Structures are given as structure tokens and as C-alpha cells.
Amino acid sequence: MSEIPNHLRYTKDHEWVKKLEDGHVLVGITHHAQESLGDVTFVELPQPGACLQTNDVFGVVESVKAASDLFMPVGGKVMECNEELTDSPEKVNQDPYGEGWMIKISEVDLQSLETLLDADSYKLEVQ
Known about the structure:
By secondary structure, this protein is of the alpha+beta class. It has helices at residues 31-37, 84-87, 91-94, 119-126; strands spanning 9-10, 15-19, 25-29, 40-44, 51-52, 57-63, 67-71, 76-81, 103-106.
């Protein structure tokens, strides 16, 4: 079974969300997603300032196996993108819940996080 941290929220599309103390959230893809993709070779992320709604495509991850769209788990404004992924996309494989984060978003309705899957529910999705 893939690693599934209990403190995160998840989507059925295999994105994770981490609420930060300042009210912003980080978004990335799960261990299961990166494992399914194989070696990540390219990550395309939105420009900071982009305002996106839940389920909007916010980027693309390409690997030796496939390309996969990334979907916004919650609506918000992109504050920051993980620029390190431009030169080191392998960080998505090496540390998907840490250095492999993708975007930081603001202006999030924090109650919408409650509609996402908790770790136990996500485990059922990937079994």
C-alpha cells in the first residue's frame, strides 16, 4: 500500500491538499499518482496570480509512461508554484508530499476542504 499521510485531504484524481497555518494550502499529487506515472520528466504549472475553480486543470505532469492533467482540488488563487520542479521534476517521485509539492493557493474556502477525502476514504479509492 502506498504511503497516505493522515493529515492531508485527497481527491479521487489523486491530488492532495495540505492546510497551512496561515490559511493557505499546498497542493501536489499523491504517492499513488506518481507511482502510476513512473519517472516524472516534466511538470507544467500555472502562473502565479491565476484564479482557478474546483476541478479546473491547473497543470500537466509528464512521465516516461504518460502525460496527466492536474485538477484543482479546491478553488483559489495561485500564490506560488514550486519552481524547483522545472529543473528537478524527479522531486515529484522522490518526495511527493514534501519537496514535490506543486502549487500554493490562497483565497480558499476552507470549509471546501471538508468535502475532500480523508486518508481512510482515499485508501479505499486506491485499493
